Amino acid sequence: MVKINGETFDIAGKTLAEYLASAKYDSTRIAVERNGQIIPKAKYDETVLQEGDVIEVVNFVGGG
Asked: Which domain holds residue 27?
């Protein structure tokens, strides 16, 4: 199980990119932290989610 923003998902073995696409995140407007480390956008395709990972996805919001 992988915890993402406080919710648990059975997605161990999927890549971060696969999860983000299935959850309909716009990867140009987010930052992702895995187990306390920021994941560079260039690594989303090769980052495989592991059992016990804790992921935080933060959306950037524009405004003025």
From this structure: 2-59
